[in-house]
Amino acid sequence: IYDEYGQLQNGTMADYVTPMMSEMPDIHVGHVQTPTSESELGAKGAGESGTGAAPGVMMNAVNNAIKPLTDGRVTEQPITPEVVLKALGKI
């Protein structure tokens, strides 16, 4: 959104106002079935790629949290308490 002078008004997430439910248009979903022979169920993926980065993001968050405390790093998953304690040099 730009003002009358061409200045961007919502350039950061702090400035962006998420629409309320009453401000959203009605969404009508239409399903089209097109089975595939590539899987046993004939099903295809729908949105799994959005979660692909989550494990790496979590590992980076843990490493950022322990960085002030140690030179160790978490380099394996699942990230269990034991894995974090090893990185901290506690076990």
Bulk shape: flat
Order of helices and strands: HH
Distance between the termini: 53 Å
Instruction: Give the averaged pLDDT, no decimals.
Output: 89
The biggest beta sheet reads: none
The stretches of 5 or more residues where confidence is low (pLDDT under 50) are none
* Percentage of residues in DSSP E strands: under 5%
Radius of gyration: 23 Å
Helices, by number, come to 2
SS elements, strand count: 0
Helix percent reads: 10-25%
Class based on secondary structure composition and strand pairing? mainly alpha
Description:
This protein is mainly α and 91 residues long. The protein has a domain at 53-91. It has two helices and no strands. The longest helix is centred in the middle third of the chain and has 13 residues, at 54-66. It is flat. 2% of the residues are buried. The model has no long low-confidence stretch (mean pLDDT 89).
Question: What is the gist of this entry?
Answer:
By secondary structure, the chain is mostly helical. The protein has helices at 54-66, 81-87.
